[in-house]
From TrEMBL, chain A:
Record's GO cellular component terms: plasma membrane
Gene Ontology molecular-function annotations: ammonium channel activity
Residue stretches spanning the membrane: 6-30, 37-57, 94-114, 126-142, 162-183, 195-215, 227-246, 258-276, 282-302, 314-337, 357-378
Species in which this protein is naturally found: Ruminococcus callidus ATCC 27760
Xref: Gene3D superfamilies: Ammonium transporter AmtB like domains
Protein family membership: Belongs to the ammonia transporter channel (TC 1.A.11.2) family.
Membrane topology: Multi-pass membrane protein
Lineage, uppermost ranks: Bacteria, Bacillati, Bacillota, Clostridia, Eubacteriales
Pfam families reported in the protein's UniProt record: Ammonium_transp (PF00909)
Protein name: Ammonium transporter
TrEMBL record, chain B:
Pfam family, one: P-II
Annotated PROSITE patterns: PII_GLNB_DOM (PS51343)
Protein name: Nitrogen regulatory protein P-II
Entry GO MF terms: ATP binding; enzyme regulator activity
Alphabetized SUPFAM superfamilies for the sequence: GlnB-like (SSF54913)
UniProt-listed GO biological process terms: regulation of nitrogen utilization
Length: 414, 120
């Protein structure tokens, strides 16, 4: 074992961890003042549930000995038997425990992403229960199928460098399904949903960018050239996506918006995630430039057209960006960059990987939708009504769910 | 004759009251966020912080709306509309007051009295 690799991946794990508080600032700033505490709380509560579950059985179910290519088992219950010296898969440069730590942070942030779509109307206890169940039903199997030893989506030849399928498509599709099941916010299209704290949105977005370097570069699982490559593609894609969102804003509305630029940057990060360690640097520029307009179109036009209330665009950003990133990986993947890829992308004349990417995206969508329906059903049995009452919604979830207030001394209409 | 109607209402009822006033064709108004309490001296709940029960909440956030109308008939209509829209039946629904206003002037045109508070 090389201490450089171990040190690098552990620092990356801490960077990935920091994305969750960043996300809570990003989401917290986007909502109305009366829902700020609830929104921030729901997106960091997965730090508590995610880590405890990961220690008890999450890692074992995700990465334990393979069962049918779909799920692990309970043989590493309580992290017993997770080696401090031997790697998870032969040839990895880090001990199993370091891999476990790094993956733990992914299991923390993924459920947190979902909370954006249901902000402002879901009972805290229901959302909490849903997120716990969702980790079982969707996240652990997805992580196993894509990254686990013997995982079925890896076997069909699809690749996912840092979590396009596992993290972004699964959470984005879940967010969409859940917000449709839950219905619109009471005041949707009636009151003005003002962004209550733009600087906090920006702070959160740039914390996400900072953490994302660990997310993508760390997914090389070694301090090597591939990590540097993923770092570069991540930076290029997010910067390009920020520019192209500003361009969309100017074309549509004449003025570039700060919140738009931050959203575009996050979309660019999502877009590059599956391909960060597979595509050439110039392709990262293309992915970044194209992801924002696609997300922009989905958020500004498709959402309007179909009238689903994806409050903070968890689907529009993560679902759509993740799907587009997965497709782009199938287009631009190059084996000379990373030999895990079992073939070049369509752009270089090989169709096999492209089809495998489409198949893995399709399977992820099916798993996420089915898993969401199951979790929604069980949550209803456990916590009763999933939505808050109309009155609780209007008073605000901060007071009705927690008895707290983000800005108790602040006077100003919301 | 100009009459000012002032209503102290629940925060979450603002949109309902605005809709009710719009339906009446009453459009001009001023809103404030205010703190206050009624004769019950605030809430009977206690603020809960880190496992402690803290002091009783006395001053509660409310919204105050001011509307100027031009006759007693409109005063009554406005008060009725606000009462219906802001009603929940619980303590803390608020109060409505009305006053005579001595004079009004539209700054831009220097119109006074009735003309100052009517749409052009």
């Amino acid at each position: 074992m090389d201490s450089g690799n171990i040190g690098f991946v552990m620092i990356c794990a801490a960077l990935v961890f920091f994305m969750t508080p960043g996300l809570s600032c990003f989401y917290g700033g986007l909502v109305r003042r009366k829902n700020a505490v609830n929104t921030m709380f729901t997106s960091v509560v997965t730090i508590a549930t995610g880590i405890v579950m990961w220690m008890l059985f999450g890692y074992s179910l995700s990465f334990g000995p393979d069962h049918g290519g779909v799920i692990g088992d309970f043989s590493w219950f309580g992290l017993e038997g997770v080696s401090l010296t031997e790697p998870y898969i032969e040839g990895q440069g880090i001990p199993n425990m370091v891999f476990c730590l790094f993956q733990m942070m992914f299991a923390v942030i993924t459920p947190a992403l979902i909370t954006g779509s249901v902000a402002g109307r879901m009972k805290f206890k229901s959302l909490f229960t849903f997120l716990v169940l969702w980790s079982f039903v969707v996240y652990y199997p997805m992580a196993h199928m894509v990254w686990g030893d013997g995982g079925f989506l890896a076997k069909i030849g699809s690749v996912d460098f840092a979590g396009g399928n596992v993290v972004h498509i699964s959470s984005g599709i879940t967010a969409l399904t859940l917000c449709i099941l839950l219905g619109k916010r009471y005041d949707y299209k009636r009151a003005n949903y003002k962004i209550h704290n733009t600087p906090m949105v920006a702070l959160g977005a740039f914390i996400l960018l900072f953490g994302w370097f660990g997310f993508n570069a760390g997914s090389a699982l070694a301090a090597d050239g591939l990590a540097a490559h993923a770092f570069v593609t991540t930076a290029v894609s997010s910067a390009a996506a920020m520019l192209s969102w500003m361009f969309c804003d100017v074309v549509v509305n004449k003025k570039p918006t700060f919140v738009g630029a931050c959203t575009g940057m996050v979309a660019g990060l999502v877009g590059i995630t599956p391909g960060a360690g597979f595509v050439p640097v110039w392709a990262a520029l293309i992915i970044g430039l194209t992801t924002s307009p696609i997300c922009f179109f989905m958020i500004s036009w498709v959402k309007e057209k179909f009238g689903y209330d994806d409050a903070l665009d968890a689907f529009g950003c993560h679902g759509v960006g993740g799907i587009w990133g997965g497709i782009c990986t199938g287009l631009f993947c190059k084996v000379s960059i990373n030999d895990i890829g079992q073939g070049n992308g369509l752009f270089f004349g090989d169709i096999h990987l492209f089809l495998a990417q489409l198949a893995s995206i399709g399977i992820t969508i099916v798993v996420a939708v089915a898993g969401t329906l199951i979790c929604y059903g069980i949550t209803r049995l456990v916590t009763g009504k999933i939505r808050v009452t109309e009155r609780e919604e209007r008073v605000g979830l901060d007071r009705s769910q927690h008895g707290e207030s983000a800005y108790p001394s602040f006077n100003g209409l919301d | 004759m100009i009459i000012k109607v002032e209503a102290m209402i629940r925060e979450e009822k603002l949109e309902d009251v605005l809709d009710a006033l719009a339906a009446l064709d009453v459009h001009g108004m001023t809103c404030y966020q205010v703190m206050g309490c009624g004769t019950q001296r605030g809430f009977k709940e206690y603020a809960y912080v880190r496992g402690h029960q803290q002091v009783e909440i006395q001053m509660l956030p409310k919204i105050k709306i001011e509307v100027l109308v031009s006759s007693e008939e409109w005063e009554k209509k406005t008060i009725d509309a606000i009462q219906k829209a802001a009603y929940t039946g619980n303590i803390g629904d608020g109060k409505i007051f009305s006053y005579d206003v001595r004079e009004a002037m539209r700054i831009r045109t220097k119109e006074t009295g009735y003309d100052a508070i009517q749409p052009e």
